[in-house]
């Protein structure tokens, strides 16, 4: 049982904050379940706490399993048996113990609540293992909002049917099997990809806990091949141009193609088409039943573009050993020259982010029938420019620890959202021309100043090619 205990402790070791919060919520739910023996209505609140705790716990557990279930791990004696015992302990902790307290309390629909706990655990585990099928729960919520009367009738029938609980248990079992089957299958790993790629197809979504790559389905593999062909085509074009006319600009273009393989025009167009298709489907599902302030679309577009820069911080850390080859290939005269080449190459992310934010905002304004699309576009362009400069600067020279990067990114997101809504109000109060001038003067000057100081600091530092610890 010592091996099972060590497996159970992995979540506490790797994600201690999540484990502590989940356990506190679980204990709160169990205490409420004990109180529910006096008042059965309290049991629903207690099981709600347990369900939330189970959701977060199993997301972390799925990430741990994705790092533990490597091909070499199966050489350990009895590894599969230990994993099975870990599953038994998990079921006892998150299903059997709350279920016993629930039976003692005796609230209505107790069996459905226990089955719901199993489904929540299965969804969390699937999400932690990188199986996006768990996100299908959002399709259920969208469908329920689309046809609320039918959803209400289905819920009423399900609560009264004795087959609902067994059906939920069966769905949970199938979901767990679907999530764990790739982890228990011994197979060759996929070809390593660039940590700075931006295909958004799940290849680079592995947890920071390990270097294990997420197992991809046929759809993701097909999309990955499209992006890889676009990256290869762009690299060959840049290489041919450099061979015909060697220059500093051509060398910089080659470095950009190597560092940022999916930030070429073909890949950008493909990514915009994919996002546009998903956005159109969402709007067709919800626009007939609800209306919202179209300005939210611009804020969400800026938020999506900001999500790229945390990947820059993580990716540059992981690429350090590989960047030694790039340093030797470029053979710079000084270390500052090499650092400047890196800074100039990564600067491409700023116009790419602004273009992406404008494209998302334009698409959203058309679908949402925005009354003031120009106001949204101008605000998004100015805020995306300044926010991208600040984010690039901070993640280039900022903290290397995951907690520090997360805290900095949180501040950046709140700052960008505040700048967007303040700028949107400013353009409405002072007019497009004067409002844009005032907003741009404040935000872009701030972003430019931060970027100028950051790139000077980065050029002053010595290049590092050691692999990050942990």
State the main characteristics.
470 residues, mainly alpha, 3 domains, globular, transmembrane helix, transmembrane
The H-and-E topology, N to C, reads as HHHHHHHHHHHHHHHHHHH
What fraction of residues sit in β-strands?
A: under 5%
> How many structural domains does the protein architecture include?
3
Low-pLDDT ranges? 204-211
In short, what is this structure?
This protein has 470 residues and is an all-alpha fold.
Notes on the protein architecture:
This protein has 19 helices and no strands. The chain folds into 3 domains: 2-184, no CATH class; 216-289, no CATH class; 293-470, no CATH class. It has 470 residues and is mainly alpha-helical. Helices cover 76% and strands 0% of the residues. The longest helix has 29 residues, at 402-430.
């Amino acid at each position: 049982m010592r091996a099972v205990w060590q497996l159970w402790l992995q979540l506490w070791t790797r994600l201690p904050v999540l484990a502590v919060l989940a356990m506190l919520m679980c204990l709160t739910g169990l205490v409420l379940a004990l109180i529910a023996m006096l008042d059965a209505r309290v049991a629903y609140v207690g099981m709600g706490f347990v369900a939330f705790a189970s959701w977060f716990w199993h997301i972390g557990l799925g990430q741990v399993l994705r790092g533990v279930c490597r091909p070499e791990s199966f050489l350990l004696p009895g590894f599969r048996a230990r994993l099975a015992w870990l599953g038994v302990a998990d079921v006892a902790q998150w299903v059997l113990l709350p279920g016993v307290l629930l039976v003692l309390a005796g609230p209505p629909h107790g069996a459905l609540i226990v089955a719901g706990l199993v489904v929540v655990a299965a969804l969390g585990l699937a999400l932690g293992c990188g199986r996006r099928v768990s996100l299908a729960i959002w399709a259920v919520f969208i469908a329920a909002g689309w046809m609320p009367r039918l959803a209400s009738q289905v819920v009423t029938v399900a609560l009264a049917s004795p087959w609902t609980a067994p059906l939920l248990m069966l769905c949970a079992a199938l979901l767990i099997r679907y999530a764990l089957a790739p982890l228990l299958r011994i197979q060759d790993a996929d070809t390593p990809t660039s940590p700075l790629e931006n295909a958004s197809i799940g290849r680079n979504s592995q947890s920071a806990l390990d270097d294990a790559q997420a197992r991809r389905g046929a759809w993701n593999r097909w999309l990955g091949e499209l992006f890889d062909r676009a990256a290869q085509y762009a690299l060959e074009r840049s290489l041919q141009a450099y061979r015909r006319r060697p220059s500093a600009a051509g060398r910089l273009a080659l470095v950009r193609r190597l560092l940022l393989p999916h930030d070429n025009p073909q890949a950008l167009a493909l990514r915009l088409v994919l996002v546009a298709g998903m956005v159109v489907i969402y709007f067709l599902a919800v626009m007939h039943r609800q209306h919202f302030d179209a300005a939210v679309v611009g804020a969400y577009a800026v938020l999506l573009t900001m999500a790229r820069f945390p990947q820059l911080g993580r990716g540059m850390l992981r690429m350090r050993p590989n960047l030694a080859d790039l340093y030797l290939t470029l053979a710079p005269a000084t270390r500052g020259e090499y650092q400047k080449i890196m800074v100039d190459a990564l600067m491409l992310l700023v116009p790419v982010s602004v273009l992406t934010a404008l494209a998302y905002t334009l698409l959203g304004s058309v679908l949402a029938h925005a009354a003031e699309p120009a106001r949204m576009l101008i605000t998004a362009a100015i805020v995306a420019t300044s926010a991208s400069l600040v984010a690039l600067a901070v993640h280039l020279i900022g903290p290397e620890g995951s907690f520090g990067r997360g805290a900095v990114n949180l501040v950046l997101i709140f700052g960008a959202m505040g700048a967007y809504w303040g700028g949107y109000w400013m353009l409405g109060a002072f007019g497009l021309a004067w409002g844009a001038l005032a907003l741009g003067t404040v935000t872009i000057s701030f972003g430019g100043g931060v970027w100028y100081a950051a790139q000077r600091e980065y050029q002053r530092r010595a290049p590092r090619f050691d692999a990050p610890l942990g």
